[in-house]
Design a protein that fits this description.
The complex is a heterodimer of chains A (247) and B (223).
Chain A (H helix, E strand, L loop, with lengths): L14 E2 L6 E7 L3 E4 L3 E12 L6 H7 E2 L7 E13 L4 E15 L3 E4 L3 E5 L5 E14 L4 E3 L3 E3 L4 E5 L5 E4 L1 H9 L13 E5 L4 E4 L10 H9 L5 H16 L1
Parallel strand pairs in A: 5-9
Antiparallel strand pairs in A: 1-2, 2-6, 3-6, 3-8, 4-6, 7-10, 7-13, 8-10, 9-10, 11-16, 12-15, 13-16, 14-15
Chain B lengths: L1 E6 L2 E6 L4 E5 L3 E13 L9 H13 L5 E12 L5 E8 L4 E3 L4 E5 L3 E6 L5 H11 L4 E6 L1 E8 L3 E6 L5 E4 L4 E14 L3 H4 L8 E14 L6
The chains are: A alpha+beta (247), B mainly beta (223).
């Protein structure tokens, strides 16, 4: 078995490194890309990584990156060269959106072209891409595409396209014991009572992992939602969190 | 009922009314159709009466107790766990599959599982093996006719034991499980170098002999 040694000429243009599902090569040729911080593992050429707050493309960032909670986690890569991206040894896939919309788990989105605009999804921890362009997403194991109607474990969900946002589904037996309370929940947990229910026409993306990074995205989303709360509710939240920290 | 691999990390099972699949709690990735998941407690080794109670108690203490659930109804369910690799093993009713309960992802409802003590397979040496390799004093045996899905870190290699290869030697941390009439023995070659920390790192070895198949994972990491 021979080892292939890459150079800028042999690296693919916007494709996985041959024989390696875990690394992806982006061809930077003038047009900038948004990339997630820490996704870059190597690059050839003259590439600059600029924080969103300190780039000369302020207008583009302001119009395309409308996700203030995530602004610290992303950079703009621009210049000429080949950029290799990787993420936790996960499989990386590129997807093309043509005037479409797709919602994806924030920690699974690696990079996207500025033809797409990024918005925070209503579902905590998820981001929505709108428009036309290419983006890169990672998944633990090959990503599976499924069509609704179906129910997904929240942790295995990568994202969804074209169909309406999911609703929560609770297992009927679990609901029954919840309502009767007599069971006291003892032994009633199969760990699968809460699922995301997808209906309508579209595609759902699922990965094999149930291990989700505690990446702070969800926390920031929830924190930003507390502005809706009244003073009394905030005090109550303060107390319940204080009680949980102590135990 | 059908149990097959969707990809190397995901198991696809098709369930029809009247059939059931037993799976690790929390391992459902997604499903279509009408399927319910209810908690399930492994019976105490198929032994009636006191044996069952002793089996359950011993299991809880020795780490062979894992939360299981039953999936019933009609539909297609996909199982996976922490991105671990899945190996599908068919049981034809003739031999028993020995595997740690922690590694079981799912199995068909008509397959039986029981907890066995390692000391029953080779007396004191078996017990010593469990203690030294960190597998505990108990392991799980799966018998019957049906399909079992087993987890591994980094994928498995299956090796035939018997015939031209009367003995296969395996690293205890890479050992996943075995099927058939196989005797497992721990061989420790602990010398002075191991004591001072300059050993080869391969002082502990599992020696498998008999007739059957052993599965070995491509990693020494235990999830």
């Amino acid at each position: 078995m021979s080892i292939q040694i890459h150079n800028p000429g042999t690296l693919p243009v916007n494709d996985n490194i041959p024989g390696n599902d875990y690394a992806f090569c982006v061809d930077l040729a003038g047009t900038p890309w948004f990339t997630s911080k820490g996704a870059m593992i190597a690059y050839y050429g003259n590439v600059a990584f600029e924080p969103l707050s300190r780039t000369n493309l302020t207008a583009m960032v302001a119009s395309q990156f409308s996700s203030p909670l995530y602004a610290d986690d992303w950079v703009v890569a621009q210049g000429q060269g080949k950029l290799i991206l990787g993420d936790r040894g996960y499989n990386i896939n590129s997807f093309d959106l043509d005037d479409g919309n797709l919602t994806i788990r924030a920690s699974n989105l690696l990079a996207f072209e500025p033809g797409l605009s990024l918005k925070q999804s209503i579902v905590p921890g998820f981001l929505t891409l709108l428009g036309t362009g290419k983006f890169l997403a990672s998944s633990n194991g090959p990503v599976m595409f499924a069509e609704p109607p179906l129910r997904v474990d929240p942790q295995a969900l990568v994202g969804w396209a074209d169909c309406p946002s999911p609703s929560h589904h609770f297992d009927a037996a679990w609901m029954h014991s919840f309502l009767s309370v007599v069971g006291g929940f003892f032994g009633m947990d199969s760990d699968e009572e809460r699922q995301f229910d997808f209906t309508g026409a579209g595609t759902v993306l699922v990965q094999s992992s149930e291990k989700v990074l505690d990446d702070g995205h969800v926390y920031r989303h929830i924190e930003s939602q507390t502005v809706q709360l009244s003073q009394a509710s905030l005090l109550q939240l303060h107390r319940s969190i204080g009680a949980r920290i102590q135990t | 009922m059908a149990m097959e691999l969707e990809n190397y990390k995901v198991l696809k099972t098709t369930i029809q009314p009247g059939q059931r699949v037993v799976a690790r709690q929390g391992s459902m990735l997604y499903y279509t159709g009408d399927v319910t998941f209810t908690p399930y407690s492994m019976s105490g080794g198929g032994m009636p009466g006191a044996g069952a109670i002793a089996g359950a108690a011993g299991r809880m203490m020795q780490g062979e107790h894992v939360g299981l659930m039953v999936a019933e109804g009609s539909g297609t369910v996909y199982f996976g766990r922490n991105g671990l690799y899945v190996q599908v093993i068919e049981l034809d009713g003739t031999g028993a599959l020995t595997v740690e309960a922690e590694r079981l992802l799912a199995y068909e409802g008509n397959v039986q599982t029981s907890i066995v003590s390692l000391s029953s397979q080779g007396g004191v040496r078996g017990a010593v093996r469990g203690a030294v390799t960190g597998q505990g004093m108990f392991t799980t045996q799966v018998t019957g006719y049906g399909t079992v899905a087993v987890l591994s870190h980094g994928g498995t290699v299956s090796m035939t034991v018997g015939g031209a290869k009367p003995q296969v030697v395996v690293d205890p941390q890479a050992y996943v499980g075995h099927l058939g009439n196989i005797t497992v023995d721990l061989s420790a070659q602990v010398g002075f170098r191991d004591v001072v920390g300059r050993g080869s790192g391969e002082a502990m070895q599992l020696k498998l002999s008999g007739q059957g198949t052993v599965w070995v994972q491509a990693s020494e990491k235990k999830f």
